Amino acid sequence: MKTNRRNFLRNGALLGAAGSIYSPFTEANVQDKKSFKEPARTISIVDKTDVIVCGAGPAGVTAAIAAARAGANVRLFEAHGSLGGVWTNSLLGYLIDFDKPGFNQELVRKLTERDALTGEKRWKPGKSFSAPIQGLAYHPEEMKLLLEELCMEVGVKVQYHTRVVAAYRQGRQLTTIVTESKSGRQAWQAPVFVDTTGDGDLGALAGCEFEIGVEKECPCQPLSLNCLILVKDVNQLRNMVHGGMRSSTEFINDGTEDLMREIRRAGVEPSYGRPMFFPVRGNLVSAMMNHEYSINATDAAAVSDATIRARAEMNRIIKGLRRLGGIWEDIQIVASPEQIGIRDGRRIRGRYTVIKDDLVVGIKHDDSVLKSHAPVDVHALKHDQRLNGNADYSIQVQPYDIPMRALIAKDVDGLVMAGRCISGDFIAHSSYRVTGNAVPMGEAAGCLAAIAATTKRQPHDVPFSDVKPVIEKVRLG
User: Which Pfam families match (predicted)?
Assistant: First the structure.
């Protein structure tokens, strides 16, 4: 049968209606040369559940598992194709400040059982960690699989390749989110939502006040694109691998100076002044050698350009090293991440804001969800500061509490946060943002959300005395 333009358009419209994913095309309604009016449409509500978690990074996957263990029906949305966020989609490669009880230790124990963890202070049967843990390196593929298994065990409904794009309220109450995916635009409802998007996407869409970077809208800490690197013999690079040892009890330095000399010998001046290798397994290492400066993480075009530059730089460094031969013979990149690593995103205004002075005095709270030991870690904000690696704020951090109130949105009801997007100032955020803190934040947020949803209360109306025993109950580590 001869196909003309009219038949093609008619058949396309019918296919769209039958699949109930895409609506038949609508004539473009161009208002002027600078605007386009999108037609209104009705979206089906796919599901109503107890708790919806947006973002499946360290905080989000923990929140979803904790909420499910606490008795809630949970949906977890993730924009990429695996759980773990910066651990997996960004190939972070190491775990910092991971001495916290609960899910942190559960992960370390289960990764150790899978032979997927490298580091001196590893979990041993019948023992717990007694000091802050630095530089525990893990295998990202094992992490992906483990997190999926844990979600499946407790009935978390995971949906990948799905991004939250709109949020709707009735008064102050957040009631509905809209997602975009290959299934089109879909609406979802719950009495409680958890923003673990890292960049505070849900809070911003819901109308919460927020800050980014040093000021309201940057300057921000740089982005980094880590890669998995295969080397010929990791033992020949021991002095350049973070966490290498001189003896059974003494760590050597982090290897940055020796690695920097080799990169320069290869004819490359890296954008990060403290390049690092982290062990993964055998001759597989994780590399952080790149910084992208002055990028607002909420600017998609800028992040895209930064990703392209960073991937090119990482390949340039590795190819330069390979040309040196010797210990660098056959070195190659085996994987670059889906998502460039982001340090600064939106910090959603909560019912308490963690500030620099809290770190200095080692503040304590009755509703503490974790105690952080992490130092202030502000990576150089400008390219001309790169050789120092980090900005020097000369702040001596005392172990400090993060209260549950910092995880509860101030401007919107039914919304809690965990991870990078909780309520804090720039300096405090540069300490608490490490994943060893994101995990207990997720535990607290998930338990709080489950209690609020199943008892028909607002998160801010649930006393910490109700939440604390539930957190202890869901901890299996």
Answer: FAD_oxidored
